[in-house]
């Protein structure tokens, strides 16, 4: 739901305002927010970043804090990250930094990649001039109270890949008169997953392809499908590896072209008649 963080930003601001930061920068790169705490002595500026954006996912849960908006929920750790930064802001309100500045920053439009560019392009972000910028992410399974650090990039580059397979729709009683992408779609899913098997994301050779969406034809019993769509997310630790993986993955999509259709056989008493197509 990138670009629709109006209510979330308003609630974050309501949580930050009573904590008396030196300044709140609102509408940063869209609906972003930055709260600034300044120490009495000069020093570096530290910025800590979380995301505001919700996702188009139905939250199926009995938890009292589950989403009340059908088809939308703050998942993928975003609610936790924002909560952590509000906790940091509460600590800063009780004990300001001895020197320099600390800035919790809530970034909009994280999921589609546009938010980071919009925030850094905002002239007011230049005025923040962070010397250090920290991102964080929840790690399910990590022991409570522990954090994991690593030199270099910690989070992967991520890019979406859409593959459309176009054939020819036919009646379900005469599938041979069409050109179905069913077989190509069935082959593509394991082929893409084999290109990015995953593993330890801190390894230099890490590659992960996750199939996120697939659709074949229309939900009807009388139609043999003529189109299929496949979405996948590609993840690598570095941009160069991403470029190589994207090329290979896209090539896998192009290679799944349908072979020439076999001629249909119509059986009649005493003979077989072949219809060229």
What level of helicity do the residues show?
Answer: 25-40%
Low-confidence stretches: 260-277
The assigned CATH architecture of the largest domain is 3-Layer(aba) Sandwich
Beta-strand proportion: 25-35%
Domain tally: 2
Broad shape: elongated
Q: From the alpha-carbon coordinates, what is the Rg to the nearest angstrom? A: 26 Å
CATH class of the largest domain: Alpha Beta
Order of helices and strands: HEEEHEHHEEEHEEEHEE
User: What spatial order of strands do you see in the largest sheet?
Assistant: 1-2-4-3-5
Q: Structural class, please?
A: alpha+beta
| Largest β sheet strand count, sense and barrel closure | 5 strands, mixed
Strand elements, count: 12
The CATH homologous superfamily of the largest domain is called: Zn peptidases
Mean pLDDT across all residues, rounded? Answer: 86
Provide a count of the helices. 6
CA-CA gap between termini: 46 Å
- As for the CATH topology of the largest domain, it is Aminopeptidase
Q: What is the element layout, followed by pairings?
A:
Blueprint: H1 6-16, E1 23-28, E2 32-38, E3 41-51, H2 78-94, E4 99-107, H3 114-121, H4 123-128, E5 132-135, E6 157-166, E7 170-171, H5 182-195, E8 208-216, E9 223-224, E10 227-236, H6 239-255, E11 264-268, E12 271-275
Parallel strand pairs: 3-4, 3-5
Antiparallel strand pairs: 1-2, 2-4, 6-10, 7-9, 8-10, 11-12
Describe the model.
With 277 residues, this protein is an alpha+beta fold. It has two domains: 6-135, Zn peptidases (Aminopeptidase), CATH 3.40.630.10; 157-265, Alpha-Beta Plaits. The chain contains six helices and twelve strands. The protein has helices at residues 6-16, 78-94, 114-121, 123-128, 182-195, 239-255; strands at residues 23-28, 32-38, 41-51, 99-107, 132-135, 157-166, 170-171, 208-216, 223-224, 227-236, 264-268, 271-275. The strands form four sheets. Strands 1-2-4-3-5 form a five-stranded mixed sheet, sandwiched between helices. It has a three-stranded antiparallel sheet with strand order 6-10-8. The longest helix is centred in the N-terminal third of the chain and has 17 residues, at 78-94. The two termini are 46 Å apart. Residues 260-277 have low confidence and may be disordered.
């Amino acid at each position: 739901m990138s670009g629709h963080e109006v209510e979330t930003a308003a609630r974050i601001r309501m949580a930050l305002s009573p904590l008396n930061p030196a300044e709140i920068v609102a509408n940063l790169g869209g609906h972003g927010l930055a709260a600034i705490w300044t120490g009495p002595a000069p020093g570096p500026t530290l910025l800590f970043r979380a995301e505001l954006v919700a996702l188009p996912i139905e939250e199926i849960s009995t938890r009292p804090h589950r989403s009340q908006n059908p088809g939308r929920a703050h998942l993928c750790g975003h609610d936790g990250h924002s909560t952590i930064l509000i906790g940091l802001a509460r600590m800063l309100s009780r004990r300001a930094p001895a020197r320099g500045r600390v800035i919790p920053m809530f970034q909009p439009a994280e999921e589609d990649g546009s938010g980071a560019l919009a925030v850094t392009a905002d002239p007011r972000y230049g005025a923040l001039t962070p010397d250090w910028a920290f991102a964080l992410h929840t790690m399910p399974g990590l022991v409570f109270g522990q954090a994991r650090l690593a030199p270099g990039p910690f989070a992967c580059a991520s890019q979406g890949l859409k593959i459309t397979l176009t054939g020819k729709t036919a009646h379900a009683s005469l599938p041979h008169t069409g050109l179905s992408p069913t077989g190509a779609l069935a082959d593509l899913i394991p082929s893409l997953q084999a290109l990015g098997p995953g593993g330890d994301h801190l390894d230099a050779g890490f590659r992960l392809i996750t199939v996120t969406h697939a659709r074949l034809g229309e939900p009807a019993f009388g139609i043999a499908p003529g189109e299929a769509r496949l979405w996948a997310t590609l993840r690598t630790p570095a941009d160069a590896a991403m470029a190589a993986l994207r090329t290979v993955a896209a090539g896998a999509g192009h290679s799944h072209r349908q072979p020439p259709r076999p001629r249909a056989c119509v059986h009649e008493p005493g003979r077989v008649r072949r219809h060229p197509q």
